[in-house]
């Protein structure tokens, strides 16, 4: 490779391009905030290192030689490549500043996610938002690997919080529900929990954290678990079953209220004395968070502070 391909530095490229534009050493020096002797010395050093005369001097100015034209074209290509690289890097950085990857646990899908997304779109229409629903373990792993910016939902005490931080949103109380199309719904206000024990129930899976809370609910009211029940963690299937049969279910109140608005469920006015857990936002412990994440956290503080 000829030395011309490796020797030209940024200051050489700037001098060559400015000389090509002005064809006058004094004007080029002025444009580059250099003294004319310094510009003349830099050009002489460049010509000496390359082994060619690049400009013919005259009393009226300077004209590039044939070889000078070749070197100027090379300098233009180098300057253009540097500019394109800077633009591409800026575009990538800007894209990162406009991207928000949100991990959503099932407990946050119908209540938090729609409100958050609506608020984000209103506040920052150009923001690219990606929602990823999954289980806690998988989402936490993605968060730790920088694949997600945050994880929202009901979290477990078993989460390693040494490198994560949590923003508390609200406690999620348990409520007792039935299908709005079933015979129990019109008389929901007349029932106590004990009156419903002879019905079939849809309960959270055995050995789950939610099941522990359900057992606590019945224990506090000194009642046994319903004898007839099935186990389900499939929300839509649970809602469908409750509307097909005069059955009873237990679910987080925020989730139940969504289906009440859809006229799919009715909530019994029974105080369960039990919370299903804490709804919060998990993020990595970082000194500086991206602007989209800061925006999302601020909006969630506003949206859910009253719960």
From TrEMBL:
> What InterPro entries does the database record attribute to this sequence?
HTH-type_LysR_regulators, LysR_HTH_N, LysR_subst-bd, WH-like_DNA-bd_sf, WH_DNA-bd_sf
Q: Which GO CC annotations does the UniProt entry carry?
A: cytosol
This protein's record includes keyword Transferase = no
Q: Where is the HTH lysR-type domain?
A: 8-65
Keyword hit for Transmembrane helix? no
**Which GO terms of the molecular function aspect are on file?**
DNA binding; DNA-binding transcription factor activity
Q: Which Pfam families match?
A: HTH_1, LysR_substrate
Gene3D superfamilies named among the record's database cross-references: 3.40.190.290, Winged helix-like DNA-binding domain superfamily/Winged helix DNA-binding domain
Q: Which UniProt keywords apply?
A: DNA-binding, Transcription, Transcription regulation
User: So which domain of life are we looking at?
Assistant: Bacteria
Hey, which family's this protein in? Belongs to the LysR transcriptional regulatory family.
Enumerate the PANTHER family for this protein: HTH-TYPE TRANSCRIPTIONAL REGULATOR YBHD, NITROGEN ASSIMILATION TRANSCRIPTIONAL ACTIVATOR-RELATED
Annotated protein name in UniProt? DNA-binding transcriptional LysR family regulator
Q: Whose protein is this, by species?
A: Paenalcaligenes hominis
Top-level taxonomy: Bacteria, Pseudomonadati, Pseudomonadota, Betaproteobacteria, Burkholderiales
């Amino acid at each position: 490779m000829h030395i011309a391909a490796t020797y030209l530095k940024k200051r050489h490229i700037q001098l060559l391009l400015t000389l090509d534009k002005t064809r006058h050493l004094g004007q080029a020096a002025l444009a580059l905030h250099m003294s004319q002797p310094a510009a003349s010395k830099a050009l002489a050093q460049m010509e000496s290192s390359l082994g060619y005369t690049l400009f013919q001097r005259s009393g009226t100015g300077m004209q590039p030689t044939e070889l000078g034209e070749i070197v100027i074209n090379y300098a233009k290509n180098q300057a253009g490549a540097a500019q394109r690289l800077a633009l591409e890097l800026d575009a990538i950085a800007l894209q990162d500043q406009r991207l928000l990857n949100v991990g959503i646990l099932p407990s946050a899908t119908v209540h938090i996610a729609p409100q958050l997304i609506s608020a984000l779109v209103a506040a920052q229409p150009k923001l690219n938002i990606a929602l990823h629903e999954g289980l806690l373990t998988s989402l936490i792993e993605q968060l730790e690997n920088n694949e997600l910016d945050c994880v929202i939902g009901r979290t477990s005490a078993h989460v390693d919080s040494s490198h994560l931080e949590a923003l508390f949103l609200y406690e999620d109380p348990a409520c007792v529900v039935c299908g709005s199309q079933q015979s129990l719904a019109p008389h929901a206000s007349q029932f106590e929990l004990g009156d419903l024990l002879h019905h079939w129930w849809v309960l959270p899976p055995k050995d789950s954290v939610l099941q522990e809370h359900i057992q606590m609910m019945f224990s506090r009211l000194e009642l046994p678990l319903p004898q007839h029940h099935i186990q389900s963690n499939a929300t839509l299937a649970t809602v469908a079953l409750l509307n097909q049969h005069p059955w009873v279910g237990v679910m987080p109140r925020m989730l139940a209220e969504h289906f009440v608005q859809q006229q799919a469920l009715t909530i019994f006015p029974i105080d369960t004395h039990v919370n299903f857990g804490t709804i919060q936002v998990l993020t990595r412990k970082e000194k500086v968070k991206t602007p989209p994440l800061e925006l999302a956290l601020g909006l969630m503080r506003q949206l859910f502070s009253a719960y």
